[in-house]
Structures are given as structure tokens and as C-alpha cells.
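Appendix C reproduces, verbatim, an entry submitted by the partner laboratory led by Prof. M.T., so that reviewers can inspect both the input and the predicted structure.
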Amino acid sequence: MKKIFCFLFLYIIAILAAVAQQDPQFTFNSQTQLTVNPGYAGNDGMITGTILNRYQWVGIKGAPNTLVFSVGGATDLFGINSGVGVNVISDEIGFFKNISVSFDYSYRKKTGIGDLGIGPSFGFYNMSINPDWYIPEGDVFGTTTEPGIPQGQASQLAFDLGFGAYLKSNTYFIGASATHINQATIILGDQARTFLARHYYVSGGYNISLRDPLFELEPAVYFKTDGVAYQTDFTANLVYKKRFSAGLNYRIQDAIGILLGFELNNGMKIGYAYDIMTSALAAYGSGSHEFYLSYSLDLGKNRNKKYKSVRYL
């Protein structure tokens, strides 16, 4: 029965990955804003590089494993106040391995309500599958093959487009974006045909100064949908001296996350998050782990200057 369950679970994951095309989820979603919102590029006036690794649903075979590398910064491109960025994402789930590379551009403008960035992203998305199907004894499905599911290794590269806007002031931020706007079609093998489902994102956060000036509270919300299903994260971080941070994340009907972060004097940031599963999958796994390391370089300026941040984690 255990082997049959493993087969069924991996089969369901394969179907969901091929049909739903759900983008990877993150508990440190503020650190991965650049991957889904090109308007975020250059918002802090610095060059920032981030590496993030997420191990989801640890203990469940075929569970997602995601690695992110992103770099973004502000620039005066052709004399225009701009932001640029690049993202590389490797996402493994079941027998699928998806790799995307995207380039971001944002036109930046100061407004009466904050600094606005707006622009497109473009790049490539490669979906590949290397199946190792296990058919239980007795062939409970009545056949050794399933129409529409590749029986061997297959992959295809597709062009991918996105667009987003990001507004930030000293006390709040608001973001809205869409990924996979062109909904590129992907064909794996002779029969398996799918597409990159368009996803929509809305996020927002606020800085609340507490009575003790050493502490700040940073509540935030992060919403995404593919038009069929949706996911909402609520996060609250308590920041001490603008360097130490601890917080809680609640992802509706999925998990409760515990977040820890620390910033060094040289601009290096380190973070760890652990998700406690609250869905039915909790009976089969031991939660999710997420780590990130980022470095911000403020060219020609004093790194120790005082500033408020509504996106510490």
C-alpha cells in the first residue's frame, strides 16, 4: 500500500505541475519580490543580490525544492532613472524540473505618495520531465501507460513575459504584477500539451513605530492567484534596531511560518524560516525549510546611514 500511495502522490503532483503551473511559493516572499514584480527593481537605490533555497514538505517524496538567485539595482539607463534586475529560478517537483531566467526593467519616478517603479520582465522558461513511473503489482490502473503523460525524458523552452508596478514610501509599500502574461504553450513528448498559466500578485506592507524607538512592527499581506485558485499570506515582523527580526507568517489553509533574520554591518542579511503545515499533508511530512542570504551594496554612500525599511525580511 505504501508503494501505491507513493505512486498516486507523484502522479497527482505531475498532473498539477503540468496543468496548474503554480509558481513557487515562499515564506520570505518580500525577498523574492523581484522574481514576480519587475517594478521592484532598483526600489532601494542599491545593488542587491539574493540567494534563497526552499525545501518544501520535507519527508514527502517528490516534494518541491526551489533555488532562487536574483540581482537588482538602480541605474541611470540612457539618462533615465531606472531599475534593472535578473532572476534565475530552479524548481523541482515530482518528475518535473523547471528552470526560468528573466530580465527586469523598471522606470522609476518620485511621486507625492512615494517612489514608483513600473515596467516589464522578459525571459525564458524551460520545463523538463524525466519520469520513472512505478506501476504497482497487478496494474491497478488497467494499463501501463497513461495518455498525455510522457513515458520518457522530454523538455521544451518557451518565451515568457511579465509586468508589474511597485510603490514605496518611508512607511509603506504596495505592489501589483502579473507573470506568464503570454501564457506560452509547452509540448512535452508527443501528446502532453500544457501552458504557463498567468498569475496575478498583489502585496502591501506598513511600518508601525512602537513606543520604544528601538522596535518596529512590520505587518504585510501577499496575495496571488492564477484565476482558479488563490493563496494569501499574512506576515508580521518585529524588528529590533533595524537589524534583528523575528516574525510569524500565516498562509491560509496551508501553513504557519516562523521567520528569523539578521543584518550585519557590511550589508549582509541572513534569514531562516520554518513552515508548520496545517493542511492534510501534515500527516505525511515534517514541514518546510527556507534559507536566504543577501548582500546590498550602496555605491558611493555611507552604509551606516539611518533609514527605515518596510521589507526587512
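The CA atoms of residues 120 and 163 lie 4 Å apart. Additional entries are available on request from the coordinating office.
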